[in-house]
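**User:**
My hope is that you can spare some time for a protein that puzzles me. This is the protein in question:
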Amino acid sequence: VTLSPTLIKAVILFPFNVMVIIPALILWISDQFQSYQFRIIPVVVGGVLILVGLYTIWITVSLFTDYGKGTPAPYAPPKILVIIGIYKYVRNPMMIGVWSVLFGEAILFFSFWVLIWFLIFFTASILFVTLWEEGDLESRFGESYREYKKKVPRWIPRRFSL
């Protein structure tokens, strides 16, 4: 991944705020940092979800920058439709990675309020993808995206899609 200023800005504006700043503020405001008790199962389950999510995000950002010649940000999107790698199995793996991190944080910190943040973000991202992003991709990539959309599921990966 080439760390251009545009990519760094894209990462700080969206994923860093969504996955780090907002959950940290929630934990701080709800006073859960001080009352956190180490529990092995939430640490393991939450930790695994966070690591899987971060790995998925890393893979997808790499594909966007290296193959797609853009960033995950709507103001500097990929110039080439990314349908290789993990995108052969599911159309929105980056969002699934973010969901995995947020849900993992809710489990790790055993936090009702981080879970509520996850549910709010989950709902908002589904609406964003279905109401705006897919239309934008159709207008930018035309028939290529429409064919891709027919073959590859939006959220639940298939073992073999393309």
